[in-house]
């Protein structure tokens, strides 16, 4: 596996995945190109040992399964999430101020707001339309050019701005969209973009879920290109690494990749980690290929392991005091095991030991992150999945800076490093 080729695939994936729906569509395309068969949740499933299949829910969450060639007795599970913090349009978004058509937004997740000012913004998401024959359809929209901006207020009009000022998404962050525009112009423009991208004519827009995205493309940064900078590294980077590992594995063992939507807002949805998506899929698969009944399902879960992948806070050279001195992971220092005594991360000594042994096997370094005792840490799908299923779980990730910013930074070498470790996980015959 060439690191340069791997990073080029990553940059392309980030460019083409401005929303969870686009990310899932792009992941599904790669799975199908590799021979995975799409399953429909609303249809009866017919599964065969050794088959490779995938299924989506809400078009924003996806599960890919590499079924074992023998009886299903354990699964090597990799978890990630498809959503990222950002600014999403409100349903009645159009508003007029000072001769400008602006679009009202709300914050999705814990957005780092300041970096959103003065950025070239595109628009992307999902639009549901009614065709002239009455048929309803959901289509993806990706306006891949600058159509909006959130201008800063000049320092001359706010002399205290550099002393710290709270930002109000409702009153201060509506992007400017069209000079002299009126409310019907938004629907007119959406219809024209749908015609341009999908050839749709005569359709009526019924509803949409749209978000702004940064138009600056992802890039390799640094004198030696040692960094990767771009939007939505949290957590499309983990989705990409998990997918690469699954596709790179030898196919000899039962393995699964799940990428849930809605992690950034708590995971409580039909397609989130707190919802039934993963459990539904596992029960259907076990009913056909495993030991039948509740007893068989519990045995499958307890024999399996879940590695929840979500990025970790790298030691920041300008703010070293924000880390515990013994637990500040370095960018390009290898995968990071995330630990929290209060179960904000699902890692325990048994699952951590397994991961350390995988790193030894893959000849990759390993690091540990634990937050300062006087600071709260975030969480992941790891504890939620462990709670819902009971599967032994740990949390790991790639170290990154600027988590939840419009542009985040991680290490290029770490991408290949974690991919190799997860590939070894997918290939490992025994998990205990």
TrEMBL record:
SUPFAM superfamilies from the UniProt entry: Aminopeptidase/glucanase lid domain, Zn-dependent exopeptidases
Cofactor entry: Zn(2+)
GO biological process, one term: proteolysis
The entry's keywords: Aminopeptidase, Hydrolase, Metal-binding, Metalloprotease, Protease, Zinc
Pfam families in alphabetical order: Peptidase_M18
One Gene Ontology MF term: zinc ion binding
Main enzyme class: hydrolase
InterPro entries in the cross-refs: Peptidase_M18 (IPR001948), Peptidase_M18_dom2 (IPR023358)
EC code(s) of this entry: 3.4.11.-
Gene Ontology CC terms: cytoplasm
PANTHER family associated with the record: ASPARTYL AMINOPEPTIDASE
Assigned protein family: Belongs to the peptidase M18 family.
NCBIfam families per record: PRK02813.1
Protein name as it appears in the record: M18 family aminopeptidase
Protein source organism: Halomonas heilongjiangensis
UniProt lineage: Bacteria, Pseudomonadati, Pseudomonadota, Gammaproteobacteria, Oceanospirillales
